[in-house]
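Quick start: read one record
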Amino acid sequence: MNPLPMGMLILLIMMHGTFQTLYDNSIGNNIVISGDSHANWATDLIWLDEHAYDPTTGNGSIGVEFAGTAVSSPSPYGQNISLATANEASDLLVQYNRELQWSELYYRGYFELQISHELVEANYFGMPTIVNRNPDEISLANFTVLSGANALQRNPSPGGGIVENGALKLGKTVQTNSTNDTATGIYFISNDPVEDL
């Protein structure tokens, strides 16, 4: 008896066929947009255990996947997760998933994609709090995919080597809490003590 639920088994079969088609036909420049996991991440898109992949350079990747939270959804690790606990979980996810380049589990927010013939840019934003309605956002991370590269750009690591929160493979997290009031355009340091995200 198969231990996987039928839906998961069907999904795995479909993914296997999709990856085989992409790799067998050298179809590149693939961008996958994901959600509903309540987590932010940026990852190289690889066919696990089927094709060689170098997480340092991105060689072997067939595209990139960007995933985002929603403004009102809780973290997958719980509604009242602390920043420290969320970042510890992100560290483990990045450590144990060689293709995962960035994980961020604390902030609720969104990402914007700018798409041109030359590149795709993903800019992630988080809300300091969603307990009350406000126009505030923190820039969490920015990623670039060059046309034909099929992987996140590394300078020396994705995101330019620095993100505001979460865990970045081969990079670092520098928390500034620099917050943009999108209604006025004024930046300030957010120190909202509300943990209930």
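The chain has one domain: 29-189.
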